[in-house]
Each structure stands twice: as structure tokens, then as C-alpha cells.
Amino acid sequence: MYFMNQSKPQTKTDTKQLFVKKHVQMNIEKALAEDPNAFDYDEVYDDVQAKKLHQSKTEKANADCKPKFIHSLLKAADQRKKEDERRIERAVHREREAEKGRYDDKEAFVTESFRQKMKELKAEEEKEQKKRELNELFIEKEKRKKGDTMTRKLL
Predict the structure, then answer these.
(1) pLDDT tens-digit series, residues 69-112
(2) What is the DSSP string of the chain?
(3) Which of 26, 95, 124, 144 would you label with 44, given CA atoms 20 to 30 Å apart?
(4) Which residue ranges in the chain fall short of pLDDT 50?
(5) Angle, vertex CA 36, rays to CA 34 and CA 38, nearest 5
(6) pTM, to two decimals
(7) Distance (Å, rounded) from C-alpha 99 to C-alpha 133?
């Protein structure tokens, strides 16, 4: 029971090593008999990685690429635009107040779209005012809570 032209084993450990080597060699031959590509790790790994890469590319192409932060940027830009419109409208209103007596004898024309725009601006302004008031109430309430806890701790 010697393995491949080896001389007689010297110790028990040598015998065990020879047995293990022979057993491993038999398992390798058995695996290769069942599947000749059993030990082609690199080729199989490359194929698997190529499939994953192709799959991820197709998923990215098919997925809806929604921006993460653009909605907040657009919202802020819209808010700035509305604030600019309000500022300009206030300046025009002040200008009209200054010219109040000058054009009283002339007829004033106001379009329907201008009236609608003014209504929208007024509604948004009221909405902003309500938000500010609620925010102030909330802050005031929080301050009261903090003050109450402080006085309770003192007592």
C-alpha cells in the first residue's frame, strides 16, 4: 500500500499522510470523472462575475433613475421665485400709492389672469403667515415646557 513509487513509510504519521494523499487523489479523480470542469474555478468565477455585471447594468437601465435631492432643490427654487414675486408686487404697490392722485382720471384695466395671480399670492401669503404663527406657538410651548421642568426641579 505504497503511494507512487515511495519507499516504505518510516512512522505512523507518514502512513497517515500517505493514506490522506491517496484518498484525496481518488476524490479528485472521481470528481473529474463526473464533471471535467470541476476544478476550473477561474473560468467559472469570470463567467459568474460577467453575468452579475451584465445583470446590474440592465437593472440600472431599466430602473427609474429618480434623483435623490432635486425635489427639495426645486421646492426651494419655487419658494424663492414666489418670494421674489411678492417683493416685486409690494414694490409696485408702493409705487402706485405714490402716484395715487396722478392717474385718477384714467381708466384702470386689470386682466383676469392678473386677478387670479393676485388671489394666489394672497392665499400663499396667508398660508405662510399661518405656518409662522403655528411655528411660533410651538416654540413658545416648548419654552414653557422647559421653564416648567426647571421650576419643578428647583422646587
Answers:
(1) 888 999 999 989 988 988 998 898 899 888 887 877 778 788 99
(2) ---SS-----SHHHHHHHHHHHHHHHHHHHHHHH-TTTT-HHHHHHHHHHHHHHHHHHHHHHS----SSHHHHHHHHHHHHHHHHHHHHHHHHHHHHHTTTTTTTSPP---HHHHHHHHHHHHHHHHHHHHHHHHHHHHHHHHHHHHHHHHHHH-
(3) 26
(4) 1-2
(5) 85
(6) 0.41
(7) 34
Amino acid code (one letter) for 4? M
Asked if 9 contacts 15 with a C-beta cutoff of 8 angstroms, the reply is yes
Q: Tell the residue number behind the cell numbers 515511495, with chain if given.
A: 6
- 125 with 86: CB under 8 angstroms? yes
